[in-house]
């Protein structure tokens, strides 16, 4: 799909080309186009008394600038990353409306604001019906599949990921996106405990990325591979994959968390502590509330603090996960604490927290996202 803005046709064409490069994960081409575009935008933005059409052009640029950050620095996305776009009035142009809601949903997913993400995905999907471009549909399906993956709606995630892969795989130049779809499907299979199927998807993704010499993209699949081994309590294999990711992408807080968790399982308290502190610092800097809770709970577990202190930090996490309807995490941490209480023969707490598990599972069933 290409946005059309009357006047400044050359710049509009460059912006459309820039977006196409980003859709196909062509980082070098996208970066070179950005340099050309930035020069023209800087001249345009300082001119007085801009017409409405130029405001549309500047909005289109701001939207694509955010999309460029998704391409090149997705781990650095934080709450204020969409502020420049929010300063504009809601566009009347249909395509710009689509991009606004679509990119806002991507932003909200990255910062773990899943309620807001769902609202904007639904608004974008209504407009998508009128857009004929297949690649645009494939991109939307991939992003909403990622959203459903994060919120444990694995059947919906698999459905959309398969739809996205079916389109991307038809077109030359979208091999990386096809690989990402395979990686996402692998992640869904991990949630569903279908480990053999997960490994097949992940190896397909790795093969595609290696053929296309996409070393940076390969690291994100290796993170999922680390998660695959972590979920099967194969700590040594998990750490081998995750440490490669955290060494080459030091800000990859999700890989840092998984690696810290594996060192904790192995009783390697000092190594786990260093990773936890690093992960906490990153998450606090980018204001990622979800992973701040994950790291905070793991930190207290690693420090082997008294039960009363552990309960406080787990309660804070459970409250957040309930608000975001992340019922799987409610179950995980409530079960964890109930097990700790059982070891200390605190039977009332065991009963209380297993009841929290039961309620969370019921809500998960009602939402249709139970594993």
UniProtKB/TrEMBL annotation:
SUPFAM superfamilies: TPR-like. InterPro entries: TPR-like_helical_dom_sf (IPR011990), TPR_rpt (IPR019734). Pfam families: RapH_N, TPR_12. This is Tetratricopeptide repeat protein. It comes from the Bacteria.
């Amino acid at each position: 799909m290409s946005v059309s803005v009357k006047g400044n046709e050359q710049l509009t064409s460059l912006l459309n080309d820039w977006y196409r490069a980003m859709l196909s994960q062509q980082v070098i081409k996208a970066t070179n186009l950005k340099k050309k575009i930035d020069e023209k935008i800087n001249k345009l933005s300082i001119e007085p008394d801009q017409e409405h059409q130029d405001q549309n052009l500047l909005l289109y640029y701001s939207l694509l600038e955010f999309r460029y950050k998704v391409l090149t620095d997705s781990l650095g996305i934080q709450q204020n990353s969409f502020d420049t776009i929010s300063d504009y009035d809601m566009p009347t142009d249909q395509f710009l409306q689509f991009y606004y809601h679509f990119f806002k949903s991507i932003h909200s997913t990255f910062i773990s604001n899943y309620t807001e993400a769902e609202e904007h995905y639904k608004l974008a999907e209504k407009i998508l019906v009128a857009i004929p471009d297949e690649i645009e549909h494939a991109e939307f399906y991939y992003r909403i599949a990622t959203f459903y993956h994060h919120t444990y709606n694995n059947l919906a995630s698999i459905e959309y990921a398969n739809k996205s892969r079916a389109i991307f795989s038809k077109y030359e130049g979208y091999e990386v996106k096809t690989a990402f779809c395979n990686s996402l499907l692998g992640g869904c299979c991990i949630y569903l405990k279908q480990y053999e199927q997960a490994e097949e998807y992940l190896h397909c993704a790795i093969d595609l990325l290696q053929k296309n010499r996409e070393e940076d993209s390969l690291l994100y699949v290796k993170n999922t591979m680390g998660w695959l081994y972590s979920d099967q309590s194969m700590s040594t294999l998990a750490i081998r994959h995750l440490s490669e990711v955290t060494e080459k992408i030091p800000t990859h807080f999700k890989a840092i968390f998984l690696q810290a968790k594996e060192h904790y399982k192995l009783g390697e308290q000092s190594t786990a502590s260093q990773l936890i502190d690093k992960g906490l610092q990153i998450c606090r800097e980018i204001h990622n509330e979800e992973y701040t809770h994950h790291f905070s709970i793991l930190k207290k577990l690693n420090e082997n603090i008294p039960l009363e202190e552990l309960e406080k930090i787990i309660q804070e996490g459970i409250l957040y996960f309930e608000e975001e309807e992340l019922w799987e995490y409610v179950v995980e941490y409530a079960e964890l604490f109930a097990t700790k209480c059982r070891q200390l023969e605190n039977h009332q707490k065991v009963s209380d927290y297993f009841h929290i598990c039961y309620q969370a599972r019921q809500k998960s069933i009602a939402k249709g996202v139970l594993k």
